[in-house]
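Appendix B.2, paired examples.
Example (i):
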Amino acid sequence: MDRALLLLLFSTPVWSLMNGIDAEQDFSWQLRKVPQIVKEKTFLLDAPKFEANAKLELSGVCGIECQRTLPVPRLSDLKELLSYETVFENGTRTLTEVNVLGADLDPVANTTTKVRSRRKRQVYGTDSRFSISDTRFLTNFPFNTAVKISTGCSGILISPKHVLTAAHCVHDGTDYIKGSKKLRVGLLRLKSKGDGKRRRGARRSKREVSEVGDHHTDAKQLEQGPSKRSGRKQKASGLNERKSERKPSFQWTRVKSTQIPKGWLRGITGDVAVDYDYAVLELKRPHKKKYMELGISPASKTMPGSMIHFSGYDADRSGQLVYRFCSVSEESSDLFYQYCDAESGSTGSGIYLRLKEPNKKKWKRKIIAIYSGHQWVDVNGEEQDYNVAVRITPAKYAQICLWIHGNNDNCAQG
């Protein structure tokens, strides 16, 4: 895909590129009332050991068939699952118990729906991922919202100080993983000429040294695109020319606190529950980048082409930001099952949509799920694999919103 096609993708509604499919349907964000998550008690817990090994590919989790048999959570279950742990930079750990007010418990919530048959897992056959190398895309919205987590995952900016990622990037369900004790988040920035020159007497730790990605502005670095260039010369201003010469690098920021839902802990569910595989990291210092807003996940049939999009730092393309999109294949109330091409490292990426704002002509992108990664599950005694994303439900929206703002004032609708 060349630069012109990227511009087309992000300036034209996806469904208009699909032979007129769904062209007449109105795809808008539907504001929904969310339950209120109220903090009741906070307890001090023992400090975590930080001894768990990072496991970016889960196994033995509840899959598509299993989801169909799950009972709808009762209000007491929901209160338990949405209580949460907070781990602070100094190693202190707390548990906050919550109450859930105004929850709409759907009696058919756990049914799964088949959307489209497409059997393509991880990277099979033609690789449909796109490495973003042009700095004009790389450091601007929406690509600039993707971040790298020091434990080997990706994440997405959701406020000036908060990052959304997968819970298993920091916790294995029993303990916090090694490396999460001094957790850091890498934000891409353009390295200027003066960067890298140390002031006399200045100190830098190894973790604070910027990781320079091997990015180039040549459009042929978008590997999966057509071989022919458009032939039309793009006239760049002097500013753009200077900007394109500056290489992107990671600026690492320490994490002040980490919050994960209690539903992720093995002691509650007996096993890791992918439904609650999400976490929020609070940065020690705010950034100045544009971030992505949260949205409640709509049903896939209300999405243009049932398509989802996400960008992350796949391990097989070191230092490169990788973008992809694909259709949802099946869904439950809490999960999207899809076969977007992805490798480890993209786990924790924010999955987003671009829909119209209600009663406006403007279009807005919002995060509606978190990419949990490639999963192996036991289905009728056989191991099967798929890629899964955790949907942001009204209850999860309320919880994440509470983590961001510290209160419910801005969390009435999503």
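Example (ii):
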Amino acid sequence: MHSSPWKAMAIAVVFLQLLRFSMEVELEPSLGHSDKIVRLPGQPKVGFQQFSGYVTVDNRKHKALFYYFVEAETDPASKPLVLWLNGGPGCSSLGVGAFSENGPFRPNGEVLVRNYYSWNREANMLYLETPIGVGFSYSNSSSSYEAVGDEITARDNLVFLQRWYNKFPHYRHRDLFITGESYAGHYIPQLAKLMVEFNKKQNVFNLKGIALGNPVLEFATDFNSRAEYFWSHGLISDSTYRIFTSVCNYSRYVSEYYRDSVSSSCLRVMNQVSQETSKFVDKYDVTLDVCISSVLSQSKVLNPQPQQVSERIDVCVEDKIVNYLNRKDVQKALHARLVGVRRWDVCSNILDYQLLNLEIPTITIVGSLIKAGIPVLVYSGDQDSVIPLTGSRTLVAKLAKKLELETTVPYRVWFQGKQVGGWTQVYGNILSFATIRGASHEAPFSQPERSLMLFKSFLEGKPLPEIF
């Protein structure tokens, strides 16, 4: 099937835009030093540098993305650069990723406490609040928050990184990895694809690999694996499992929900599922008690509640992170400002994301990246019922078969310390799947030590330890 001339023209226009953005990059002065954080309020003394601030990705609409950058604890000059993206779509990489998952600090009342399994032990970590309208990221034009989708987000993220390099030119040629979770299963492959295409014109990005945690890769497979997960973990009855797989499956319900057309049959099934799974079980970690931080609701869009069911996630603490990031002294230290909103929120209330983008598969893009020689790791916290490991494992195995990749590491346990950290399988030494035992949707939050071991192995391109 031949590409239409219109499609070719559209691609050409995108490249012209990106090249224009690239030329604009060179006009910006080097400002890395002005973004340096002297000290965050309540922060313990540390030996590494931190930076935060804004990068304008659209001069006309003044679209500015907020970032938080933490250099490696030791010898940052020898360590790679890692970009971290949280999902949602519309949830904060600063509040979720940095301050509750794999950043160096976690708020605790008035102070910050050290996270001794911070990923900046192994890399220079760059957290980006994306798209526009998330966290401290903003635009001077409210229209920038409307009809935002995957394509706009990928382009803005690409321009962000180009211009960020201009602030930190000594990182321009550093090995780059992109990591993230949940709806970042859309963000990351699409950003990486743009990088690979852009490098054909102008070699800018030294991309060495991507890692996707509990990612949305193929809507139907990912979502419909939820029924078997619920049933196998005892959350629903045999009869409810039958109707959840025959009368109305989860992907059909979500499709109807976002088209404002939920059928009576789907509503009946979802009400039954909700009643049995109970509002007192966190779907992002089915073994965790529910009195937990609101950051664990980061993927609200993936878990819409049935109409006529008044379920609300119990966020006993509304929350240390929200309270901390809404302090004026903290915002001043971060060089952050609130524009168009009264407070910083974990997930955006002003962003109008094109939620039907959810149905566009990104697993095919992952395949194209592997063909381009980019290593890919898909990992799953095995206590997550929202994007269960079974769906991710199925998709990775199918992709390996399609690409004719042989198994190079057979399915086996891996260790962290003297305990089993999870299970893993590798195909063609370029596509890997791993589970993190006992971990939630936000694996570094619930299993920080095991997640750090996985991250270290990923960066080094080494198989996960098979003995303790």
